[in-house]
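Q: I'm a student working through a structural biology exercise. My instructor gave each of us a protein and asked us to get a predicted structure, then write a short paragraph describing it. Mine is Phage metallopeptidase domain-containing protein. I'm not confident about reading structure output yet, so if you can add a plain explanation after the C-alpha cells, that would really help. Here is the sequence I was given:
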Amino acid sequence: MPAVDLYIAYITDQAVGKYNLLPVWLVDALRAQKAFPTLDLGKVRYAEGIETMQGDRPITLEYNIFFPDTLNIADQNADRADVLAVLHELEHVAQTKRHDGVRPYCNKFIIQSAGAVSQSLQRRSWRAFVKNLHEYDGIEKDAVDKAKRLIDVVMEAAIRPPPES
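A: Happy to help. First, here is the predicted structure for Phage metallopeptidase domain-containing protein. I'll explain a few features afterward.
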C-alpha cells in the first residue's frame, strides 16, 4: 500500500467519534467575508487530539481537519492562535478542492517537498516520509498568507455580539 494511503488510514482511524463542525460564529464570519467562496463551510469537520506525525501541526484531508491539540474556537472567547490555525487549514481545504481531491493534492504536496522526503523514501519508511512533509514553502506559504489576511476581521466577528432577531 502506498505511503499516502497508509498515512490517511492512520489519521482517519484516530478521528472516529471525534469530529466537530466549525462553530456557527466562525462560519458566519467567513461567509460574510466571502473568504472561501468555493467551499461548503457546513461540511468542514475537525477532530482534536490526533497524532499527525507532524509535531504540533494539523493535517487536512479534503473537508476534514486533524489537530494534535484541543482548540478554543467555540465562542466569542476564541483563542486567536487557534482561529489562525483553522483559517490556515481551511485554505488547505480549498487547495484540496482546487486539485480535484486529496490524492492529487497530496501528490503535489509530496512533489513540492521532494527534497525533504527523499532520504525517508530511501529508508522505505512511510512514517519517516510523512514526518518531513511540511519542510518546504509552496502550498504552506499560500495557507499562511491567507490566514494572516483574514485573522483580524474574523476575530472582530468573534467579539461582536450576534445581531438581535
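A: Here are two points you could use in your paragraph. The chain has one domain: 2-159. The mean pLDDT is 84. It's a good idea to check both against the output above yourself.
Q: Great, thank you!
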